[in-house]
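Subgroup meeting minutes
Present: P.N., E.W., G.H.
Scribe: E.W.

1. P.N. recapped why we're keeping a running log of single-chain structure predictions: easier to compare across weeks, and new members can see raw inputs and outputs side by side.
2. G.H. added today's entry (220 aa).
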Amino acid sequence: MAAVTDSWIEDNYQLIDNGFAKTILKNHHHDDWEFIKQALFEFKLYESDIKTDGGNKTKIARRLEIPYKLHGWRERNFYFETNLFDEDTNNVLHTSTSTSHKIDAVKDKIAIEFEWNNKDTFFARDLSVLGRLHSNGVIDLGIIITRSSDLKTLFDSLGTYTNHKGETKSVKSKYGESTTHTNSVEKLIKSGTAGGCPILVIGINENVFVDNGEILTDKR
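Output recorded in log:
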């Protein structure tokens, strides 16, 4: 199987690199980066999935996650404990604890979140936890795989679909500005929500779209 090149990923996905995350991946997590590139190459954005109701998790989100689950990436919760000390006596005055939300995929000090079409407030949650994990040496970087904001043009062109109630709805109504997409996560990263954690955002765009199951040409 031919290796997927970096240039193919750059040509077919929107990449937002903060804190040299991609360089860290290539130089310190080479095998993981090769796997991620292969998973991205094999992923297709089917029109039929875009027009299907999602329930708790859409077909698109599930298909994004499956390759990772099959290759040793695990969902993980993290438990945080913070102690407040008296400077003079060194006694613990107060201890607070918290548990993170479940990170979608964690392996080899890399944490990945899949955010196809959630409320955009999920990004602040994700970035905050990734920042805490990085500052404590648990991860080297975080990756967020979401939809590119440029998909708005595609959604506008896809017309309508029928939901599970038999109602006719416009496709674009499913993917509003207040849901997860690259523009919203980029703003949060620039505002420092992830702290010092290197973040690579991978935006799914029209380059991997498949109209009614047409097979894309292998051009790695």
